[in-house]
Amino acid sequence: MIRVENVVKAFGGIHAVDGANLSIETGTITGLIGPNGAGKTTLFNVIAGALPPTSGKVTLEGEDITGLPPHELFHKGLLRTFQIAHEFSSMTVRENLMMVPASQTGETLWNSWFRRGAIRSEEKALAAKADEVLDFLTIDHLADERAGNLSGGQKKLLELGRTMMVDARVVFLDEVGAGVNRTLLNTIGDAIQRLNRERGYTFVVIEHDMDFIARLCDPVIVMAEGKVLAQGTIDEIKANEQVIEAYLGTGLKNKDKLETPA
């Protein structure tokens, strides 16, 4: 589905991503792990169009999408969430979801004057879809709550809900577990698995919680110093000497530490 070929992203003389090569297959939940500074989020930003690569190529189902801006990738079904949620804090949870679909009838002045009936009909349909999404995510009781009042985990669920308001094909999740309690993290994990199984979403997940990665992800890709170090099942990754050295610098004798949340 997605191919990353020899991607480099340099900031001055520093190569945050240094010749990365990887593949994301359709229908998978792929984990992307690595120590802090490995280049994971920078690579996300390059793939999702937030940063242009210094060199290299990114393709989506054979189409060259290298350097395309996020709004164009959005229309191709490639979406991402952020480690820190980006909600419209003064709007309700339902309204946050209704804002997502592009090219809504009410966005033009002409339509707001002369097509009010069409606008009302569209808003009714969007509200119904938003309520369906909230029910799917088990946060329908928060529909009329201001988004700024949500907990960290609830905001992450709201971000996941935004991807459900459009025809997402592949979703990049950046540290979905950051600042989230274990109960809500399990709810988020359940939603990701259901979207994958029932709606065919492809996910790529950056996460430091190895229990979460082990539960959801196959394959798992490991980055270190801007490069892809290893790829395989979670068991293969845990047994990989290079991976353990990258995380711990102490070899296999401490490999059990890789099995605990970071």
From TrEMBL:
Superkingdom per UniProt: Bacteria
SMART domains attached to this UniProt entry: AAA
Keyword Nucleotide-binding: yes
InterPro entries noted in UniProt: AAA+_ATPase, ABC_AA/LPS_Transport, ABC_transporter-like_ATP-bd, ABC_transporter-like_CS, BCA_ABC_TP_C, P-loop_NTPase
Domain ABC transporter residues, every copy: 2-250
UniProt keywords, alphabetically: ATP-binding, Nucleotide-binding, Transport
SUPFAM superfamilies: P-loop containing nucleoside triphosphate hydrolases
Gene3D superfamilies: P-loop containing nucleotide triphosphate hydrolases (3.40.50.300)
Molecular function per GO: ATP binding; ATP hydrolysis activity
GO CC annotation, single: plasma membrane
Protein name, per record: ABC transporter ATP-binding protein
